[in-house]
Amino acid sequence: MARVTKPNVLRRVNGERPLVTQKGTIQAKLPAILKSNQGTSVSTNLCGDLNEEVALTCYKIQVDGLWAEESVLLLKAYLEVARSKGQRLEIYGVELDKAMCEFCKQRLNSISVGAHVSVTVQNACATKLPFEPNMFDIVMNRHMLHSVPRGVIPDILKESYRVLKSDGIIHFVAEDIEMIYTSSNDDDKIEEQHQLWSKGIYKTGAELGVDLRIGRKLPAMLNHHDFIVRFVKFACVDTCSLNQQSLVSLFQSWRSAFANGWQKNKIDSDYDVLFNNFINVVQDKQEYACWSVPIMQAVKRNTMRHS
């Protein structure tokens, strides 16, 4: 979540290429801050017990794959709300797990974000945010909704609405586990992959109370919670845009995580075999694999304007 009060203070924090604002080149990029504030992006019930380094490695690969397409959308949103503001950019990160919150704070201490930027990480729950109403210009929710109990998602949207300013922007990366494809032309392999994602992964999530199809459902939910959806785009994380081994490593980390979850919850482990078969396809340099990730932005309806 951010209060953007200066239009040219987004700063590069991890040595990657700069972006450009209305006032010229800036030293800006947010993955290191996002990784510090995000914590783990998986449910411990769904994926078993992941150590911090595994979770962060998985998240880093996701950021690397998505950032080229997502950064343009985020920068445009920041510039839009930054017009005619004051002198500082304030960023607040919220993490539910106390140990992970402390870990995020430690990582944040090693990152230089610039004199005009302040970053705070707080131990809090997304269903009960410790902030005043109408406080933020932008709220970001990335790789999170698929890992929380589906019943609390409306509460998260309500809290995001409460702390967002009128006409403020909310930005989501909302995963959908079935938006994963390969170029396989073998009907048996295609059916195998369908069984993996629809039965092995999605059904497991449903049994454990999370919604792994939230990416396709979220636009309608935002409409129902008095947001106005501005756009829904789909970032393509594939074997063309990302180093093939990076994509293999991502799916291998998922396989390990879900295997732990299946074992922990005593779920049929045959899906682990299907996961191995899927990874073999991704590793084949003659094949193509794609993870399509929904990215969307909405604005809080200006209640005075629409009353």
TrEMBL record:
The GO terms this record gives for MF are: S-adenosylmethionine-dependent methyltransferase activity
Q: Which Pfam families match?
A: Methyltransf_11
Query: What CDD domains has UniProt attached to this entry?
Result: AdoMet_MTases
At the top level of its lineage, which domain of life is listed? Eukaryota
Domain Methyltransferase type: start-end pairs = 82-171
Q: What is this protein called?
A: Methyltransferase type 11 domain-containing protein
